[in-house]
Amino acid sequence: MNIQLTKSQIGLDGVPAAETMLSHVDGERGELIIAGEHVKNLVGKSSFEGVTARLWNAAAGKTLSEANVRASLGAARERAFARLPDLLPATRGMSVVDGFRAAVAGLRAESGLEHESTIVGAFPVIAGALVQRARGNDPVAPDPNLGHAADTLRMLHDRRPEPREVTALDSYLVTVSDHGMNASTFATRVVASTQADLFAAVTAGYCALTGPLHGGAPEPVLEMLDAIGTRERIKPWVDDALSRGERLMGFGHRVYRVRDPRADVLKAAIQQYATDAADLPFAGEVEAYIRAALRRKNPDRPLETNVEFFTAILLDALKIPRQAFTPIFAVARAAGWTAHALEQRRTGRLIRPSSSYVGPRPAD
Ligand code: ACO
């Protein structure tokens, strides 16, 4: 007999697919714990390297320090830069988002070196090279003595970043380093569950990230803010979009029924480090109107601001080109993906769900 699944069953809503030490999302209370600490307490106290050490330690029973990870990522950025001549040809003619996918797929194991460092170190080098190429420039070589956030900005902009810019990007990288069983992490874990290597697993994660329902949302957020343009146009633009049945990017979440805690963390980072480059009052008016309009449209389904709304404003204030927003998200999430792949390989089991057949049965 054919069994029709509900919308929630099709989306695996609320179905736990792994036991994890890495992160926990409480959608009712609006809380995110990353490797034992609330995200709001990590930001400003831990660097990206610090949170990456916490994740890799929790995933694989290691005892890495922030300094260990800083050194291994600096060395990995240099190795990735040396490999660019092999990686970039496959990206010719592609956008930054697509070229990043092709170059990541070209990464491979380096003998005697840990795959997770090779991957996390390579991501900003690839993103920086693709951004420079889009400007007609050669890639900027990494500086292994800088922190990961500072060197990412340097390779993107070909100048030494100001300390407040580094703090703003580091806050972002920490905030989005991991987030429970989101779609890209699930994709990563499914691939890792087959005992495929970390390179295959994170390539799958990046592919899942690129869609607008996940990590592809920040670029459309900026396009929306541009299209609205002025205060007077907020109401008519939003009302029109909703009446056409459009989804407004940067709002709604599968798990959160209250405001995404990462939205507030990023808003605070913008206020502290990047206010002069961002029109926060205008963005705040757009946000407030959209929240009210979504409440009117779907009174029974809370649809609040998610992380992508303030991601777009923060990355734009840091003058990161919008075509690179998804790869920069991946620079951060690579910490989570590699940790989940390690944890899955260590403690998990082949992930192989079933499906409900609703097609025709043979005549006999
Ligand atoms: N704008 C307008 N309506 C929305 C939005 C939105 N952003 N999000 C959900 N809805 C509506 C849906 O149309 C649906 O309405 P209906 O019941 O009348 O058909 C209802 O709310 C429930 O939507 P679902 O699709 O069941 O919600 P789901 O949990 O699958 O969606 C998602 C979560 C994909 C994030 C959704 O809210 C969305 O599309 N948001 C916009 C894209 C976005 O911001 N993506 C980034 C997410 S954060 C991240 O991944 C890092």
Tell how many strands the DSSP assignment holds: 3
Number of helices: 16
Could you tell me the CATH topology label of the largest domain.
Citrate Synthase, domain 1
- SSE string, helix = H, strand = E? HEEEHHHHHHHHHHHHHHH
Ends apart, CA distance between termini = 15 Å
Mean pLDDT: 95
Strands in their spatial order, largest beta sheet: 1-2-3
Class from helix and strand fractions: mainly alpha
CATH superfamily membership of the largest domain: Citrate Synthase, domain 1
The largest pleated sheet is described as: 3 strands, antiparallel
Return the domain count.
Answer: 2
Q: Estimate percent helicity.
A: 55-70%
Gyration radius from CA atoms, angstroms: 21 Å
Structure description:
There is one protein chain. This protein is mainly alpha-helical and 364 residues long. It folds into two domains: 23-211 and 322-347, Citrate Synthase, domain 1; 218-317, Cytochrome p450-Terp, domain 2. Helix content is 56%, strand content 3%. The protein has 16 helices and three strands. The chain has a three-stranded antiparallel sheet with strand order 1-2-3. Helix 4 packs across helix 6, helix 8 packs antiparallel against helix 13 (261-273) and helix 12 packs parallel to helix 14. The two termini are 15 Å apart. The mean pLDDT is 95. It binds acetyl coenzyme *A (ACO). Acetyl coenzyme *A (ACO) is lined by residues 11, 182, 212-215, 217, 247-254, 294, 298, 301, 303, 306-308.
